[in-house]
Amino acid sequence: MFTISNSSLAVVIAPKGAELQSIYSHKTGIEYMWSGAAVWPKKSPVLFPVVGGLKNGTYQYNDHSYPLNRHGFARDMEFEVTEQQMDSITFLLTASAETRKVYPFEFTFFITYSLNDDCLSVTYKVENEGRSTMFFSVGAHPAFKVPVTEGTTFNDYYLRFNALENAGRWPLASDGSIEKAPEPFLNNTDVLPLNKPLFYNDALVFKHLASTAISIVSDKHSHGITLSYNQFPYMGIWSAKDADFVCIEPWCGIADTVTTSGLLQEKEGINALEPKGTFERSWNVKVF
What we know:
- The protein is mostly beta strands.
- The chain contains one helix and 21 strands.
- The protein is globular, with a radius of gyration of 19 Å.
- It has a nine-stranded antiparallel β-sheet, with no helix packed on it.
- β4 and β5 (about 65) form a beta hairpin.
- The model has no long low-confidence stretch (mean pLDDT about 95).
- The chain starts with a strand and ends with a strand.
């Protein structure tokens, strides 16, 4: 495990998956991340080179079919540390014989965690080291503890968007694919009350929300988190059944639709990166 810290925060990251493990505030004395208990052992997997599931677990590229697990392989691979300071650290994953079996692109993938007062910034940088256009998605999946403080319950919390939303939820088919049309969900509101049945039908998936930040807050105290994500066009909000956490997931990419062609370059939300090109996106979480 690796730790970065400043006068406000201590943050722990595991080299496997470069996965965020802990955000602890010296000011509030609160741990904000999910514990990683048996109901869902992950805490903040990194999604690369796809977000969500592929129809039939495969995609096609250059007349070849490749199997690839839901959310890709980065979350299960060991990253190396390329740079570390007291309040920042950078991890690196590169293409290998193992990755080429399921993803035929040459890449370097950097993840940097850095602190500024009571805010953690997470930056993804993808570089195309190959000779052809690289197609990929990248996204976050951090799980925040709810309830945040003792003496409160899951139902005491709500999500607060930083803009009024009129947005449908895109339902998931039984195989994890995105359905053809959204269901009405957010109607001229900036608040979504939390309750555990909200997630009994899997994640809440949104496209192109008006908001660029979502907070987990309660009227019973002044503590919570705000996650800012203005460079990510898709959003997933999820919890395991009856679990005490909520994932706020900014995505540059999305699961296959039920009508997908299966061609990687035609996948909705896919990012195309030219040879020697660089793609960089950041999200931030402020705790209070």
